[in-house]
Write a structure and sequence with these properties.
The chain is an alpha/beta fold. It contains 13 helices and 21 strands. The longest helix is centred in the N-terminal third of the chain and has 32 residues. The protein starts with a helix and ends with a strand.
Amino acid sequence: MFANKKIVAWLCKLSIFLLMFTFVTTDIKAKENNMSTKKNQNTQEINIDVENKYQEIDGFGASGAWSIDKIGSEWSEEKKKKVADLLFSKEKGIGLSMWRFNIGAGSEETDKEIIIDPWRRTESFKSGEKNPYDWTNQAGQQWFLKAAKERGVDEFIAFVNSPPVWMTKNGHAQPDPSVGSTNLKEDSIDDFAVFLADVLEHFEQEKLPFQYISPINEPTWSWDYAGQEGNRYNIEDIKKVILALHKEIEKRGLDTEIDAAEAVEYTSLLDDEMYAKFTGGSNVYNSGNANGSYPGKYREYIKELLGDSVINEIIGNKISAHAYWSDHFSGANRLVTLRKYVRENLNQYGQDVKLWMSEYCILGSNGPGRDLTMKTALDVARLIHFDMVETQASAWQWWLALSRYDYKDGLIYTDYSNPGDEETIIESKLLWTLGNYSRFVRPGAYRVDLQGANDQEELMGSAYYHEEDDQLSVVFVNYSNEEKSVKVNVDNLPGKKQAIQFKPYITSEHADLEEKNLIPAKKAVKIPPRSVVTLVAQ
């Protein structure tokens, strides 16, 4: 009898515990599922004016260098297709609209003692001046290029880290101190242009045309003895390459725009006067390794490229740069203030100047250590928000689509190293957070005015309208630990239309771009803590 009483008491305690646990977990889920609420005094008024347009969106993308080559050439069809779906499908994944294809320099043959990691070496389509092209090389990257096209990607960028090794002064895919301002031979500039045009022409014939070609990548760094392919170029070196490549593209009638200069960071873009204004000092930008160490100039890319009328026309009144070290890791003022200075500087050369953020991942002391959680996802989502709103980027592109490293450089991760290993696919919250932009903010949309949410520690919001698709997408980033309530007011939709209801898509610790129930536009919407939510107007 005594034992039975103890059992009954224990069962009662267990029941109470299970009831409390169910209540707590249900309450957490309810905060995400139950997204609509009556308007109250804590609701933020969000006002969107569709007629007030800013930049046109070219797309959101990522890079296939270098690890995707191993995946595409060594993995099973089933697993490759799963990766492709996650990256490119608008139904099963994040619907990237741009894809970056690396044209290798041939370090796989020449640089095994310099680039120790085989996952960072690349083949070349042409291994010597007198050798024929081998279009079976870079098979893995080619597989993903086709997979992207099959899943609806239309914008492809071919980018180059180093000229082919047989065109370099030292015969390697990275410079050393002896080569001077650049590793590209002076008498190989035209050959380099021919090589790139040959690649463009080949893929056009394969019905996989590149809309953009980026012949130079991060020209400011010295790249001496680098553990990856790379090359420095001073301003004059850059212009020689651009002019030669443009001439060859024009001669062949290729419909490909040159993208330049993939500057290593935003500060290297700035005019000296603007840089001094930003830093509060008088020194010109000198943090790039090559600037001051090698002959020529390695800075002021806005002035030197967009301020040169000939070069400006060739590159389409657009400049590309990487956003490394442009966030709170270097001080909170860089996240917003630096972007304001970049846009102000760009506007000095015309109100319609475009900027592409063409590469980013988390570097420095915060780079090591994979983080699959919302912490890194929200840090990046916040950076995307201010790139779209303050820098007014027309395109935003992540670095590695897939990484095998213990580093914050991938959207998808794998622990696979060699054939025979398990083909693991590890999704990050960052993947799905990027999808809150890439799946719904499509090429041809315009960012439109949104007022009421632009706090880097709390709630941030941006809005995009695609006239052809008649779609309004609103992306909210809730960086805070508190739920936010918003009432979205939309004015000036074409044809005097009104937003009747919103379809939410949420990424959080509990959801991966999860579709929720429709919410009437007249009701306030709950944005869960530490989440990214896209509202699509119906």
